[in-house]
Specification:
This protein has about 475 residues and is of the alpha/beta class. It is built from 17 helices and 14 strands. Bound molecules: 6-O-phosphono-beta-D-glucopyranose. 6-O-phosphono-beta-D-glucopyranose (BG6) binds next to loops. Keywords: Glycosidase, Hydrolase.
């Protein structure tokens, strides 16, 4: 039996370019879908799905707005200029790995240029070189909610097959340029999220979809992403010897609300649907039950000749996922609901919640690890986990975030048990190790970090970085390879 975490376990944190870099309109960067996202303190799911805020008119207006006032992701936390200081803090905590993403529109401003933007490429040269210098392994996501806005406007995002070629060109440039610096790659962040927020994930503008066709177009776009993911997996393996490519799933672990068979059946179907996205990327084919479900819904995906073969041939090397909370499912209507990561479920009476209503469930992480390993038999990597909370800075500049320490401590205990039961887990990167702009609400006040950033929701503040209590705690966890919780 294994005791504790493996020797070279990749402890670290995870970021996304559009939530940290800022520098939205300099050095040749084009607008991305993230640059038109506006601040919204209360997330309504319909809103986030893009049905309220993402219309062609809203986008047109945002394209004309030349400042970052209403658009917090345009400013991020100025990581573009402060990455050295931030990496030094991560190194001080002992990070072995950092997950970041490459902003596609920094390299190809509209997505359709034939030649990349050299200045954009140079930024990531420096970022990855500095990570290597500090002994921090880069884990790089190629698409994390930041496709060039121009592709969204011209093609309705991933709905058009043309975007596959544009993405493949972008990825080839990245593999060729960073082949000596980056070994671990993720293709699409939370590929399943296309169903929950089609604009953010795939540039699909809901009011551009013909009446009654939105769902079908979402599955069509998803198919294009599956094919693109398989093609770039092949390219990565060809261009970078020894490279490892992973898929990335939002692990929306769902329990039946009761043992009533109707609840159990609904839950089973929910979970099968969640797995479907990773199934395609790991097993190389669409699950039969999902194809039948699509057929019954009258959803027809147009596939080019050879697509199925591409999916079958180029599967991923490992499975990465995010885990924040669990949900429950019931066949009954009218039960009290709880919020989750861009999703709602029936409230679980056994679980506490964060200030944003996400239900805290450390055992759910262990269950997720056991389920995923049993199903895929592939190495696993946790690339997002954490707790968004409001932090208070004391007059002496300290921040006592014991709620966050508790959250991590309980999750790490479960993670360790799963590893000791035989799950092959090779790393853990917490979400937002430094405070960043929230993906869902664009808030700064929803803080995940071990490091505090002095900036409020309106963008006021010095941007100074401060160590929270959790900073010192995580440092000890890493130094003891997870023994000292
Ligand atoms: C994940 C995303 O779904 O959740 C991240 O990959 C996001 O980009 C994270 O930030 C937490 O969500 P939020 O809305 O609290 O930032």
């Amino acid at each position: 039996m294994t005791k504790g975490f493996p020797k070279n376990f990749l402890w670290g944190g995870a970021l996304a370019a559009n939530q940290v870099e800022g520098a939205w309109n300099i050095d040749g960067k084009g607008l991305s879908v993230a640059d038109v996202a506006t601040y919204k303190a209360n997330l309504s799911l319909d809103d986030y799905a893009g049905h309220v805020t993402v219309t062609s008119e809203v986008i047109e207006k945002a394209m004309k707005d030349k400042d970052d006032k209403a658009y917090p992701k345009r400013r991020g936390i100025d990581f573009y200029h402060r990455y050295k200081e931030d990496l030094a803090l991560f190194a001080e905590m002992g990070f072995k790995a950092l997950r970041v993403s490459i902003a596609w529109s920094r390299i190809f401003p509209t997505g359709e240029e034939q030649e990349p933007n050299e200045v954009g490429l140079r930024f990531y040269d420096q970022l990855f070189a500095e990570m290597r210098r500090l002994g921090i392994e880069p884990i790089v996501t190629l698409s994390h909610y930041e496709m060039p806005l121009a592709l969204s406007v011209k093609y309705n995002g991933w709905v058009e097959r043309q975007v596959i070629d544009d993405f493949v060109r972008f990825c080839r440039v990245c593999f060729t340029r960073y082949k000596d610096l980056v070994k671990y790659w993720l293709t699409f962040n939370e590929i399943d999220s296309i169903n929950r927020h089609p604009f953010t994930t795939a540039g699909i503008i809901p009011n551009r979809c013909p009446e009654g066709k939105e769902e079908e177009l979402i599955y069509q776009a998803l198919h294009h992403q599956f094919v693109a993911s398989a093609l770039v997996t092949a390219d990565c393996h060809r261009i970078i010897e020894g490279s490892q490519v992973g898929c990335m799933l939002t692990k929306l672990t769902t329990y039946p609300n009761t043992c009533h068979p109707a609840d159990v059946e609904m839950t089973l179907k929910k979970n099968l649907h969640n797995y479907f996205y990773a199934d395609v990327q790991v097993f190389g084919e669409y699950p039969v039950l999902i194809e039948n479900m699509l057929e019954r819904k009258n959803i027809h995906i147009v596939m080019a000749r050879g697509d199925r073969e591409i999916l079958r041939k180029h599967t991923v090397d490992f499975v990465s996922f995010s885990y924040y909370m669990s949900l429950t499912e019931s066949a009954k209507d009218g039960l009290e609901k709880a919020a989750g990561n861009t999703i709602m479920g029936v409230k679980n009476p056994y679980l506490p919640s964060t200030e944003w209503g996400w239900q805290i469930d450390p055992v759910g992480l262990k269950i997720s690890l056991l389920e995923l390993y049993d199903r895929y038999k592939k190495p696993l990597l946790i690339v997002e986990n954490g707790m968004g909370a409001v932090d208070k800075v004391e007059s002496d500049g300290t921040i006592h975030d014991d709620y966050r320490i508790n959250y991590f401590k309980e999750h790490f205990k479960q993670m360790k048990e799963a590893v000791e039961e035989g799950v092959e887990l090779f790393g853990y990167t917490s979400w937002g190790p430094i405070d960043i702009v929230s993906a869902g609400t664009c808030q700064m006040s929803k803080r995940y970090g071990f490091i505090y950033v002095d900036q409020d929701d309106e963008g006021n503040g010095t941007l100074k970085r401060l160590r929270k209590d959790s900073f010192y705690w995580y440092k000890k966890v890493i130094a003891s390879n997870g023994e000292n919780l």
